[in-house]
Amino acid sequence: QPCFVCGENGASITCRETGCNRSFHLPCAVEGGCVTQFFGLYRSFCWEHRPEQAVEVTPDENTTCLICLDPVGDRKSYSTMVCPACKHAWFHRGCIQKQAMHVGFFCFCCPHCQNVYRFLMEMLTMGIRIPKR
């Protein structure tokens, strides 16, 4: 299968949405805005069918990522996420992914409100890989 992100052959991950035949390589997923869920059925979605956060909030002006302290932009997006529990903790996808890899499943929580369950489930659904170590 050709990868819809890079165009090279050998793409082995196909979007889970019925009727969608987009395939991609795992390393191309982030560049293509794809989401791969690393739990349960290990489903993957292309940029068009990926899950989105249901939280209806926008960051205040000059809001920064709680991890890297760089600006997060003016809305939720693939690369900008918010805690579903407190709705005040904003961070970049890449920053929260690094945090998850560093702390692991049993210590992963919202950097602001320390919520564990809602935060963890939302991050897993949004494609953040959280190792069990």
UniProtKB/TrEMBL annotation:
Residue ranges annotated for the PHD-type domain, each copy included: 1-50
Gene Ontology molecular function: ligase activity; zinc ion binding
Pfam families found in the cross-reference section: zf-HC5HC2H
One of the record's GO cellular component terms: nucleus
Keyword Cytoplasm: no
PROSITE patterns cross-referenced by the UniProt entry: EPHD (PS51805), ZF_PHD_1 (PS01359), ZF_RING_2 (PS50089)
InterPro entries found in the cross-reference section: EPHD, PHD-type_Zinc_Finger, Zinc_finger_PHD-type_CS, Znf_PHD, Znf_RING, Znf_RING/FYVE/PHD
Entry keywords, A to Z: Ligase, Metal-binding, Zinc, Zinc-finger
Name the UniProt record assigns to this protein: G2E3 ligase
Sequence intervals crossing the membrane: none
Source species, domain of life: Eukaryota
SUPFAM superfamilies, A to Z: RING/U-box (SSF57850)
Keyword Ligase: yes
Residue ranges annotated for the RING-type domain, each copy included: 65-114
